[in-house]
Amino acid sequence: MSENIRITKKKAGGRIRSPALRKYGKVIIAIELIAAAMLGKDIYTSMHPPETLERPANGEGSDDVEMNFESGELKGKAAFTVSETGLTTKEEKTYIEQAKAEINQTLFGENKSAASVWRPLSIAKTYADGMVECRYTFDPDPLIDTDGTVLSMDIEEPTMVKAEATLVCGDTSEVYIIPFRVVRPNPATLDGLTLYIQDALAKADAQGGKELVLPKEAGGHPVTLSVPLDFRGIEFAALGLLLIPLFLIAEKKQEVTNVKKRNEELTRDYAAIASKLALFTGAGIRPREAFRRITASYEKNRKRGAPASAGYEEVKKTVVEMEEGVGEYDAYLRLGDRTDHRDFRRLTLMLTQNLQKGDRFLADELNREESDAFVTRKNNALRKGEEASTKLVFPMILLLGSVILILMLPAFMGMGV
Q1: What torsion do the CA atoms of 380, 383, 389, 394 make, to the nearest 10 degrees?
Q2: N or C, which end of the chain has less CB nearby within 10 Å?
Q3: 222 pairs with which residues across the strands?
Q4: Helices marked H in 140-231 — which ranges?
Q5: Which helix (DSSP H) or strand (DSSP E) does residue 307 occupy?
């Protein structure tokens, strides 16, 4: 039997209850009720064959339908398309009139009037919210590009142009004629001067040669061409300034992570160090010599490929300090200050008191420390296990949602929802 789902039986009714079923029971019941409603709808539809099918509204597109049929002993399936509702002739003409009004409002774009056109035309392929298709032709043809660009630099005198817009809506079509006059651009305006400069640059490029001579005037106006200022250096500098707080935040977060990791290592190592100290002092070995032997064993394991460990590294530093002449009492105090850890500060207190009062109670105190340290280590392991379980809750919720979606989506698609 699983430990996560415990099944108990009630004495009165003898019913089986499960925590998981109680937790997700409402969801399961809702799914089953929806499935029953869908099944009932399908059964009713199958038992009452329709005589007509509703067409999609105009603009919604056609529907692909598949239906069962039977004739005597012959049974099968027939697939066909139900087209959308068509427009009446009156409605089609109404949409075409609407398209004409839109053309009058939008065709000339930023040009002030049809009598003076040199800016690009605003050409659209559909009008009236897509109900009317439009195709333009221009006479004379070369003056207007396919994208609506007016080639006004190619003329010397104002030229009349006739635009023919072929409008089609359903079965109704009409040719709408819009006359306008193309003139050379006005160099006193920004757009006009831009066109004159581009024309001058094109003529300078056509001359060939190793270098392109930049024009000094365009459209009768003196011009000075310069290379645009490149702001990449400023952008890069701003990027560097923006990264400073990110680096500081990342560094602070890394410091917190390192401190947490170090404290976890100290807590883990303390149990083993306390156990070894208790063993050595119980055998009559003084703490200073016990520290030295613990360090020697740690160094041997390091040479064999064992990773460094914070607690043993601090013990090693204490041994090095004592060998360099630091007093045993001071070396123990420095151990507590360096680690800044509750367990090692308690160990420092025991060792310094031992130097003052003697070794009589040190072994017993270390044995108690060993027991307490292992209890703490076990509790930390249990806590980490609970944290890992908590982190799995969200992925489990996503998985449950995915399963429900996989189960329900085909059913809703079958209903046409």
Answers
A1: -120
A2: N
A3: 217
A4: 190-206
A5: none
Question: How far apart (Å, rounded) are the C-alpha atoms in residues 53 and 282?
Answer: 95
User: Which has the closest alpha carbon to 81: 100, 101, 53, 105?
Assistant: 53
Asked if omega into 140 is within 30° of 0 (cis), the reply is: yes
What was the pLDDT predicted at 11? 43
Residue with tokens 């409603």: 37
3-state secondary structure of 136: strand
**Model confidence pLDDT, tens digit, residues 47-87:** 777 777 777 776 667 778 787 777 877 888 888 887 777 78
The structure tokens listed for 361 are 């109670």
β-strands 63-71, 16-17: how paired? unpaired
The pLDDT value given to residue 196: 83
Give the β-pairing of 74-82 and 126-127.
unpaired
Question: What is the helix (H) or strand (E) element at residue 314, kind and residue range?
Answer: helix 310-323
Collapse the DSSP code of 44 into the 3-class scheme (helix H, G, I; strand E, B; otherwise coil) and give the result: helix
Average pLDDT, the chain: 81
Q: Is the CA virtual torsion 122, 128, 130, 131 positive or negative?
A: negative
Q: State how far the Cα of 132 lies from the Cα of 172, in Å rounded to an integer.
A: 10
What pTM, to 2 d.p., does this model score?
0.43
Q: Are 110 and 119 in contact (CB under 8 A)?
A: yes
At 217, which amino acid appears? E
Confirm if 197 and 218 have CB atoms less than 8 A apart: yes
Q: What share of the chain is helix, strand, coil (3-state, %, to 5)?
A: 55, 15, 30
In the predicted structure, residue 8 carries a pLDDT above the cut 90: no
Q: Are 132 and 126 in contact (CB under 8 A)?
A: yes
pLDDT in tens, 178-230: 999 998 888 888 888 888 888 888 888 888 888 888 888 887 888 888 888 77
End-to-end CA distance of the chain: 42
Q: What are the tokens at 106?
A: 């939008």
Q: Three-state SS for 342?
A: helix
pLDDT per residue as tens digits for the range 313-345: 999 999 999 999 989 889 889 988 998 888 888
